[in-house]
Structure formats: C-alpha cells, structure tokens
Amino acid sequence: MPGARRWVLVPLALVVTGVLAGGLTLAKGGDIENDLAGRSRTALQAAGINGGQVTFDGRAATLSGFPAERVVEAKNIVRNVDGVSDVTLKADPEPTTPPPAPPSSSEPAPPSPPAPTSSTPVDEKAALQDEINQALQAEPITFVPDEATVTAAGQRAAKKIAELLKKAPPDAEFEVGGHVGQGPGGEKAALKLSQDRARNVARLLIRYGIPTDRITSKGFGDTQPSGDERRVEITVR
Q1: DSSP of 20-84
Q2: H or E element: which one contains 231?
Q3: Which CATH architecture has domain 121-236?
Q4: 99-150 pLDDT, tens per residue?
Q5: Which of 61, 70, 116, 154 has the smallest CB count inside 10 Å?
Q6: CB under 8 Å to 127, separation ≥6 — which residues?
Q7: pLDDT at 177 over 50
Q8: PROSITE patterns recorded for this chain (predicted)?
Q9: Nearest residue to 154 via CA among 143, 167, 169, 168
C-alpha cells in the first residue's frame, strides 16, 4: 500500500507543476503585450503621432485609427520597437454616404410679399394736418360774436381736435392761429381779438390732454383774409 500511494502522488505532482508552468507562461505573455503596447505608444507620442490605437497579440502589433497621412510612419515606428515581430494595419470602416433625397414634387412656395414700409414722421404729420383741416371745415371752433369766448359747439369741436392731436408723432408741435375780419376798432383791435381767441383755444386743447409745451398760439388779426375770416387754424409742425 505505501508503494501504491507513492505512484498516485507522482502523477498529481506532475499535473500541478504543469498548471503552474502554464499560468506563468500566460502571465508572462500578458506582461509582454502590455510592455510592447506601452513602449509603442511612447514612441508614437514622441514622434507627435496621436489618436490611434496599438494592440498586441503576443509580439504582433495591430494599428488602427491613425491619420491617413501618418499611418505609414506610425507603422515603421512600432516595427522598430524592440521585441515587436510584426505590424499589421487595421483598415478603418469607410463612412457611409446617405442616399440623395428624392426630388420634391411640390411646387416652390410663392415669394413672400414685401414688408410694408413704415411711414416717416413727415408723412404722418401731413396726414394729420389733412384730418385737422377737414374736421375744422366740417365743425369749426366758433366764438361768441365780437368776443374771445368759445361757444359750447366750439368747445365740442376743440375736444375732437384734441383727440386727433394725440395721434401725432412725439416730436410734433401745434400752432393755434386766430383770424378775424375787419371791425370798427381797426387793426389793433382785430389783432388783439385774434390773439385772445387763439389763446383760449390753446387752453382748451391743454385741458383736453395736449401737453402745454407742444402748443403755441398766435393772432393774425385781419391780415390773412379768407372765405371765413372769423376762424381758427391749427398747424402741425
């Protein structure tokens, strides 16, 4: 029996020895690959070549992902690393080109209409002046005869004019001009009456919401005769 036990132990020792030797061989092979890969990358970086990959199967190197203009140089550098037996280039996959889009069967969209041009302040003032003239012609600002007092109808007309003036451009200013016909008092009396009437209308417009600093008044007396010499004109400037 002791002799039989020795024969059993001898094969078992051989098996253990073989397993250990194989493990050392595998470990040594992995160390070699890591060492070669590390030294190859160092050599490539020293040459200023980056961006690719170097892998090893034993001592055989495979290169991939390097710039096309430097791939030959990279191959030669790795081949000259001590311990490298062979260098293979792995081709990068060619980029796929998407198929061309089918021609559109729909008709082209009509061109967009031109953007409307904005009116200038001069145009706005001219348009407003026309509105004021028409409003005063349809409903004039009237006064008590031979006085500067505005009648009730004249006050209503002035209020409508104030609403029009509120639409004026911010830089617009307004002049209230008073006109009267010739009277027994002569030119001086006519001038004073026209001034008083223009001033009273300006005060009404201010009361109806027009800023004071945008309104002036002026009397012209009987110097500018017209079809209606007892009139008030409002000019946009």
Answers
A1: HHHHHHHHHHHHHHHHHHHHHHHHHHHTT--S-EEEEETTEEEEES--GGGHHHHHHHHHTSTT-
A2: strand 231-236
A3: 2-Layer Sandwich (3.30)
A4: 666 665 556 667 777 665 556 778 999 999 999 999 999 999 999 999 999 9
A5: 116
A6: 119
A7: yes
A8: OMPA_2
A9: 143
